[in-house]
Amino acid sequence: MTSQLHAICFLAHEPRRLARFWSELLGRELVDDARDGVALLPDADNAYRIRFLAHDEPKLSQNRAHFDLTSASEQDQQQTVARALALGARHTDVGQLPEEGHVVLADPEGNEFCVIEAGNNFLAGCGFIGAVAGDGTQAVGYFWSAALGWPLVWDQDEETAIQSPAGGTKITWGGPPLMPRTGKDRLQLDLAVGVHTDVRAEVDRLISLGAKRVETGPRDDGRVLMTDPDGNEFTVRG
């Protein structure tokens, strides 16, 4: 049995403050969970939790992954941008061109995200968080497809994307050249195994697919820290 994507995790200096920003922007309920800490609940059956974990390391460069938020119309896009700015976001430059239709913002801790223009067919039907867009190789797209049991919905010119069979948010990788790695990944995937699945066996399966185990034992919260073939950190829990 494959792992399930349980949550998308932000490393944050002020987890509750950052969670409030995303809660207001996404319209999701904020909770204190015994295992997940500060988290936003899914807003659909095919959505995932968003966790906020305390971390002191400064943000040194552009994140290797970010949210792409979708828009139903030009007015809807403008309203999302205005709401984000009012909540504490700011405009940021990641090299986007003036003629590109998406708007690039950063949340109160500097995590980049895009508000995509209306009419983007690739993200149609994916929900408000249309994609977790990452910097990564074709090989890492293949790894995550096998790790989660999600089909590839895009595989062209070394760019890949996967999506759950139930639909919802896509996870995408843009292919080379890759950004240099500086510091820890501030967006990470949290995986969970089924009730009748042994965590050690699942860790071994992920290693056989190309992952590496970072720590010899589980953390205090029972999660095992690993890296995918591109070196991106993720966790596995029972």
UniProtKB/TrEMBL annotation:
InterPro entries to which the protein is assigned, alphabetical: Glyas_Bleomycin-R_OHBP_Dase, Glyoxalase_6, VOC_core
Signal peptide span: none
Residue span, VOC domain: 125-238
Top-level division of the source organism's lineage: Bacteria
PROSITE patterns, sorted: VOC
Protein's recorded name: VOC domain-containing protein
Organism: Actinoplanes auranticolor
Lineage per the UniProt record: Bacteria, Bacillati, Actinomycetota, Actinomycetes, Micromonosporales
